[in-house]
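Design request, tokens follow.
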């Protein structure tokens, strides 16, 4: 077993525990394909096998609180040490508060059980940047722990509901769930290498947005009976923005480490990426691979051979390597689908056909992929879920991760990316056994077409029998709007046994 490339610092900060929650309601994508006349083989290969949906008694706050309560109780966390509880989400239903709602729910239930509640001297921020909110919350919590005196710890929870209008190209990439993480010094699971983390950010205009004004636009989502959280998006434009953003972050990491790109990429033992659907991480990895070949002089022979088959010149790929495209500027100039990396994308398509690359990608990307294919897109919780599922899969297969080089790559449309190296710590298996990703998937309730459509559109859902069990629920919603007291549309929560 080789030695770690960067030894874990004695005062490392990282993740000591994780827990997961997903709703029980499930849409089987093979059934969905039969309902909609969509090609199942394509959906299975590109997207996954199923996605989860919230019931009428659930929202992001109940999911987040369920994940946090499981984290505390399964790991025997001393709540008196917690000083920071952050929520990462892009599905907030309240524009004033966020994480404090989760804090209040968990605190009341802990005290009801006769356990110590959460401290009053608690920071409760909410982080929002599309699908990167959960990772921003994680790095924020890690910095809090680094700077705070004493032995204070932090909890991060990423929770989201991904929903798209029926009939849109994104409908099969829906999902719902939450992942909670305990962050502290001397972590028991993963050390975070904040010193070498790299980022990228650029404004992309209409790349996957949720403008509030869409709810007041006539004809928007007319089938629903409530303001929907469907995004405004352009798939081809968003793909170009995604590849540009994650590549800038990852290549900045290689420069910071002083590594040859091809060597740095091959040295990675595991890559955990934002995964809205199964194919996207593979597309990004092939993009990294082609650019790494172009940036490494000793790899020119392989690049030339791939370019010859793809029908592009190596010079075109190298030229794109040194370019700095203005995607939003192209949109402002009237180009709706700018593709500044045509040569690299073409060679990447050829790379993905090669057996050697498929094996390379399998060993680095596929830890936990079978679990993730069952939950759908979790937005801010997507990358934390990939970490949780990957660690649990590595544990079940008896794999040793200590001494291996691991990388997380987060992305948030809008447009930003984060490349954060992580390291498994000795004895990580003990904490991984308590993650419970597979357990969170148990007892699903499969929806038929009529029930799915009614639930999706928030219409009457006749015959849906899902009894909440040991979880937080929306008990009722406030309706007062008088001069002395108002709670209009404020949800009240309870814990159901």
């Amino acid at each position: 077993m080789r030695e770690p490339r960067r030894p874990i610092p004695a005062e490392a900060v990282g993740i000591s525990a994780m827990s997961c929650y997903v709703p029980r309601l499930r849409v089987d994508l093979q059934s969905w394909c039969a309902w909609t006349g969509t090609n199942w083989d394509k959906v299975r290969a590109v997207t996954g096998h199923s996605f989860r949906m919230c019931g009428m008694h659930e929202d992001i706050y109940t999911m987040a609180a369920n994940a946090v309560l499981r984290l505390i109780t399964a790991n025997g966390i001393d709540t008196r040490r917690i000083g920071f509880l952050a929520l990462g989400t892009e599905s907030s239903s309240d524009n004033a508060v966020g994480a404090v709602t989760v804090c209040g729910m968990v605190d009341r239930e802990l005290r009801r059980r006769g356990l110590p509640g959460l401290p009053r001297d608690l920071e409760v921020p909410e982080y929002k940047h599309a699908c990167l909110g959960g990772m921003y919350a994680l790095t924020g919590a890690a910095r809090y722990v680094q700077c705070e005196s004493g032995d204070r710890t932090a909890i991060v929870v990423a929770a989201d509901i991904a929903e798209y209008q029926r009939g849109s190209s994104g409908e099969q990439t829906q999902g719902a769930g939450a992942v909670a993480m305990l962050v502290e010094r001397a972590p028991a699971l993963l050390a975070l290498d904040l010193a070498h983390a790299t980022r990228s950010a650029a404004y992309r205009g209409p790349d996957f947005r949720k403008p509030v004004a869409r709810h007041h636009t006539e004809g928007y989502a007319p089938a629903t009976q409530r303001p929907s959280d469907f995004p405004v998006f352009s798939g081809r434009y968003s793909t170009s923005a995604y590849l540009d953003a994650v590549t800038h972050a990852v290549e900045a990491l290689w420069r910071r480490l002083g590594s040859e790109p091809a060597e740095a990429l091959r040295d990675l033992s595991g890559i955990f990426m934002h995964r809205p659907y199964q194919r996207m991480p593979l597309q990004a990895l092939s993009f990294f691979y082609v650019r790494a070949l172009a940036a490494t002089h000793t790899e020119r022979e392989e690049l030339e051979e791939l370019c010859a088959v793809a029908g592009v010149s190596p010079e075109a790929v190298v030229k794109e390597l040194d370019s700095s495209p203005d995607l939003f500027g192209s949109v402002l100039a009237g180009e709706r689908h700018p593709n500044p990396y045509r040569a690299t994308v073409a060679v990447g398509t050829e790379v993905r056909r090669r057996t050697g690359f498929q094996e390379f990608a399998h060993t680095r990307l596929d830890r936990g992929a079978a679990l993730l294919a069952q939950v759908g897109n979790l937005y801010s919780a997507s990358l934390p879920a990939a970490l949780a599922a990957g660690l649990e899969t590595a544990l079940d297969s008896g794999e040793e991760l200590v001494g291996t080089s691991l990388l997380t790559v987060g992305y948030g449309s809008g447009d930003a990316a984060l490349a954060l190296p992580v390291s498994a710590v000795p004895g990580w298996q003990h904490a991984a056994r308590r993650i419970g990703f597979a357990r969170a998937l148990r007892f699903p309730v499969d929806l038929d077409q009529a029930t799915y459509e009614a639930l999706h559109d928030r219409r009457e859902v006749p015959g849906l029998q899902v009894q909440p069990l040991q979880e937080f629920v929306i008990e009722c919603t406030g309706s007062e709007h008088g001069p002395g007291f108002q709670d209009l549309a404020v949800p009240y929560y309870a814990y159901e046994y």
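Comment from the thread starter after seeing the answer: thanks! The CA atoms of residues 7 and 476 lie 51 Å apart.
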